[in-house]
Design a protein that fits this description.
The protein is α+β, with helices and mostly antiparallel strands and 154 residues long. The chain starts with a strand and ends in a 6-residue tail after the last strand. The chain has four helices and seven strands, in the order βααβββαβαββ. Helices cover 29% and strands 32% of the residues. Strand 6 and strand 7 form a beta hairpin.
Length: 154
Amino acid sequence: MSRLQWIFTTPPLPENHCNKIAFILRMTTGELLQSHRIASLPLANNGALLLTQKEEILGSLLWMKIDESTARILGFGVHPDLQGKGYGTQCWNQLIGEIKQQKLIRITLEVRESNSKAINFYRSKGLVPKGWIENYYSEERGVLMELSLNNENS
């Protein structure tokens, strides 16, 4: 069995990758993303991190630059069978290195308020809740979280 590894990818993403990413994000975050929407996201250079084993995608993190200093996480999920085994942390560490290399100093993201597992993961990486986003998700609020890399919490 070949080793699982996180690999940076720069857009455009092939359609088969978008389909697999959409599946992982639906399964892990509840987001009903379609592959054509993923393909049209304005991802940064190296804006997709994919957990791969051979041709299979078992995790993904998508991000974009929203200004000269801020990265925004658009979607992050690891296949449920692989959660709790350090793959999310590996991805996060690679992301932090890339974001620092691109001279960005802040990371923001939104997460469903009911997704306590994700909120706890992000808190463990130094992100702090900044407030609620009403009507962000159709059935519940979103939690806006942020990390300042100036504080070196990563």
